[in-house]
Every structure is written in C-alpha cells, then in structure tokens.
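For this section, I looked closely at the sequence of one protein beside the tokens encoding its backbone, which the following lines show:
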Amino acid sequence: MSRLPTDDRYAQLLQGARELFAGHAFDALSTAEIARRLGVSKALLFHYFKTKRGLYVASVRAAVAELIAMTEPDPSEPPAVQLWQSMSVYLDWVRANQGEQQQLLQGGIGVDEEVLAIIEEPRAITLQRVLRALGLTESTLELELAVSGWLGFSEEVARYWAPRTSVPKELALGQIVASLQTALAVAKIDASVLKDPQKSDLRRDSET
C-alpha cells in the first residue's frame, strides 16, 4: 500500500475493515488475517485502532454515522414527504449494505455496551425526528413505545425486502409509512401531519 496522508490512510483502512466485517463474523477474522487482506502490517492496524475490537467499534460507528446522515430529512419539506423520503433512503441503504446491516449492526461481538450504545443512536435520533415532524417538544412514554415498535417493524420489513428484488420497493415503503401512522394512532397521538393525499407524488419522489 502506498503512502497516504494520515486521514486518508485511516479512512482507507476503515472502509476496508467495514467490507471485511460485512462478510465475516467478528470471531472469524484474526488481526493477522485482517492486516493481510488490507495489505498492511498488524503494527499499522494497532497504530490506528489499538485492537481488533477498536477496529470493529470504529467500523460500527462509521456505518451508523453514514446511515444517520443519509436518512436526514429535508426540513423544508412537509412532514409526510420527510417521512417517505427518509425511509426510502433507508431501504436503499439496507439493500446496498446487506452484509454490513447483518454483521455490524445486528451481529458483532455479543454483549458489548459500547457497540450497543452506538447501534442505539439511530433509534434515538429517529425519535427526535418524529417529534420534530409532529411538532412536539417533549417525548412521552406512549410515543417512545410507538416509535420503538415501529422501528422494529421497519427493520424487519427492510431486512425481508433487501434480498428480494422481485418485491416492489413501493410496497415495502408503503407498509413502513402506514405502520408509523397506525402505531401513533394506537398510542392516541395526532399524526395527521404525516398523512398526505398526494401519495402518488411521494412515491414518484422516492424513486428519483
């Protein structure tokens, strides 16, 4: 591997590690194997990441940060459009990163508090996004339960849809959007701002 600026080298190693962990369980890769596949020495890996766990944690953090950034809704759009577009991007991300979703965000190194905290970040941020979309300033137990259940449903829909290219994206997306509206209605939370009669426009926008 040729010499690169420190930031570029770090980013290159991290991207390579994400790809490796996406296809292999944490315990299936030794530090020596990771270094060999990345074309660097173990010493260089240790220099940047200290341990194999450190490299894994950095990989999880990078994947989560990417997902959060990509699904950030456009605040200039109506709440219904924000929801539709954000979840459309989420589905695309899961399909494009199926291995990473499985190994980094759902598998990994067992009960590791730091990793679990990182994985929970998108959930906490999504709750804040829903609050903002609903025009609320404070959360409630009912809202948190509704959003938590919806997120679990959305993750399962995305995981089912991602490898099945014959399943229309519009079908998966429609179920995800409708399920949030239903969950909020059951919790007796006014979600009327998330209902938009121009669904055809939302569907068209989600495909562009």
Remarks:
- The radius of gyration is 19 Å.
- The chain has ten helices and no strands.
- The longest helix spans residues 113-134.
